[in-house]
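retry 2 of 3: previous attempt timed out while embedding nicotinamide-adenine-dinucleotide. Reduced batch size to 1 and resubmitted. Inputs unchanged:
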Amino acid sequence: MPVETALPPAPDVAAVIRTLRAAFDSGLTRDLAWRKSQLAALERMMVENEAEISEALKADLGKPFGEACTAEIDFVRKEAAHAQKHLRRWTRPQRTASPIAIQPGKSVIEAAPYGVTLIIGAWNYPFQLVLAPLVGAIAAGNCAVIKPSEMAAQSSALLKQLVARYLDPRAFAVVEGDAEVSTALLAQRFDLIFYTGGERVGRVVMAAAAKNLTPVVLELGGQNPCIVDETADLAVAARRIVWGRFLNAGQICVAPDHVYVAASVEARLLEELTRAVTTMFGPDPKQSPDYGRIINPRHAARLQALLADGRAVTGGVADIDACYVAPTILTEVSADAPVLAEEIFGPILPVLPYDSLDAPLAAINARSPALALYAFTRDKATADRIIASTRSGSVTINDVVVFMANPNLPFGGVGASGMGAYHGRYSFETFSHRRAVLRRGFALDASVRYPPFTKAKLALLRRVT
Ligand code: NAD
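retry 2 succeeded.
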């Protein structure tokens, strides 16, 4: 069960940043062999500390061992391995053409590190959400301050220990703490801020960054709609939706938040969803080793309150002290129910019938774009229509969540679900500035560009530039 842990004393954030800036200015992080060694150390850190990491996740979130392995340990390990494998290619300067006016000249685009970066994470995937961006920061040659969420206290403490033990302390530091520490960090000047969390704090981060003109990447949340039409394989759709909705007890930013289902197949889908819950978590999910817990009693109580509207076809019960909320499928939910008004971020799935696809599409487009949009259909024209007529950070047809596991796809939101993207090469690009490098010699210093300008000279200049 999650435990409340006292926070460590507030660190001197300015001193931490001074150390990192000195390392960056020394050129330490620009060396490719050093970057590779840090990525290899990060990979080793995940492999050698599987037991400690999964125990911390168990303590913070009751996270099942399998989920700790796949979504946190293996995820970060694979990102670090992928970056090592491709680093040389990613960092190779890209030659590009030079127009005649600047000939002879050699134009190159170089991926340059920003400098000292700040990575602020949320509590639901306490390792993945700070270490996957860190892979990008390292690969691109940056220093980084990592601020894990104080709400996953055991994970935060372990991150601090492990990063200090495995990574170069001149370039990387974990600063633990709550909103106050986060605020103190945000008052400092960073060269890039990478934030994962809710929309409200995302605005605070962006406003703080504006004071120093620091670029921001915001990985936010919101409601992810899912459509199931009458042509879908309902059993497969139900299994995939149940898996994605109840992973980490629903505390996942890309979980399907609610399902719009064609009214003609609603009853069958509800049956299949209920069957899938029982198959995966047994008759009493509270006893299942594969079902997690809510981060704290406050959130468990918030979720319990959301159960007030609608009829639970399965679940519908909560034990606040145990941070348990049963995997719940809701039907007969009223249009103005709180469960539809906000991001649920918990194990509750409202199912909403529709008569015409126009209705869910209109509802989806009336909201700000989601981080993830899902649709289950056998009809290619329907899939194409859904993709073409909506906006979202990502869209997946006939599955949920798994797009995240492809390092070749960018992961990020649009509009209120965020800005910027990462994973795989996109992490490297996000943490790199595309620097224009033009090299010229002293030959052919044509006088045409210099004043005084005659009419003929200007005409020539305008032709060649
Ligand atoms: P949160 O916004 O409460 O906190 C995130 C981080 O911000 C924590 O490290 C916290 O200490 C810090 N923080 C809190 N208040 C602050 C303040 N006033 N000023 C500065 N920093 C502050 O978010 P959360 O509750 O930890 O996470 C849940 C949200 O995150 C959900 O909306 C979820 O969808 C979203 N999320 C998004 C992604 C993604 O990849 N897009 C991943 C996980 C979670």
